[in-house]
Fold this protein.
Amino acid sequence: MYEFDKTDIKIVNLLLEDGRMSASEISRRMGKISERAVRYRVDRMIEEGVIQISAVVNPEALGFNIKADVWLEVEADTVLDVAKKLASFENVTYVACGIGQNDISIQIVARDTSEIYYFVTEVVRKVPGVRKTTTSIVPIILKDVYQWRVPERIAKELSENETINASK
């Protein structure tokens, strides 16, 4: 498993501000780390699957102004098959399998509520194995997964561990 340190966390947080930020700019902003070291750390985190750098499309910019979360109950032996089928649809932006009241949750985007209605009633509910759906329109998203930052407490724990190890 990849072991983060404070420097990695600072690099990741700067890339969250701007995924196109150059290693030289990251080095300049952080100080005390070379451009080469930044490039090495970024490459290592990518290779280890710790981070990925990609473009994030804003669906609203393309006219997909309505988002909905849909929770599904499905037949026990079809969970992965249903999830994979749902992941194949272009207007599905998120698919996850869960444990509890709902087996699968998805998020869909559409141009209007009638598209949401049609997709849920005529597509999702007709996927073999789907027993029940519950839909909620999502008018506001305050934080999405690509905005998640490494928690401050993790950085503090890393600092404390480095201090303890340095004093030994």
